[in-house]
Write a structure and sequence with these properties.
This protein is α+β, with helices and mostly antiparallel strands and 109 residues long. The chain is built from 2 helices and 5 strands. It has a 5-stranded antiparallel beta sheet, covered by helices on one side.
């Protein structure tokens, strides 16, 4: 996998995804290799390497991203009764692009 799967594959269009929601600056889509029965990823279209590298100039983008995450999480919760919203940092973060997982169900693998 590349260092930034989201820029290199998803946002470039090389890897086609099933979109859940899209705004001018944010994309939410079903994970291409899900770890959960319901596994949605939300990403900013601008490259930001992780949650801890956000800058003050990214505040508007972060609010837009959190708004999309909130809407997607509400839909998953409404349909399934619950969900988890999580992000990874450091060695836990496979792709060095800020992304959030909205998931439901027991881990598949």
């Amino acid at each position: 996998m590349t260092e930034d799967f989201y820029c290199d594959e998803v946002l470039s269009g090389k890897t086609k995804v099933n979109k859940v929601m899209e705004t001018e600056n944010v994309l939410a889509y079903y994970h291409t290799k899900p770890f959960y029965p319901v596994h949605i990823v939300a990403i900013p279209k601008k490259h930001i390497s992780s949650l801890i590298t956000l800058e003050a100039t990214d505040n508007g983008l972060l609010l837009e991203l959190l708004g999309v995450i909130q809407q997607v999480a509400a839909k998953v919760t409404e349909e399934y009764g619950a969900c988890r919203v999580l992000t990874n940092l450091g060695e836990y973060q496979d792709s060095k692009h800020l992304h959030w997982h909205i998931v439901f169900g027991k881990q598949l693998r």
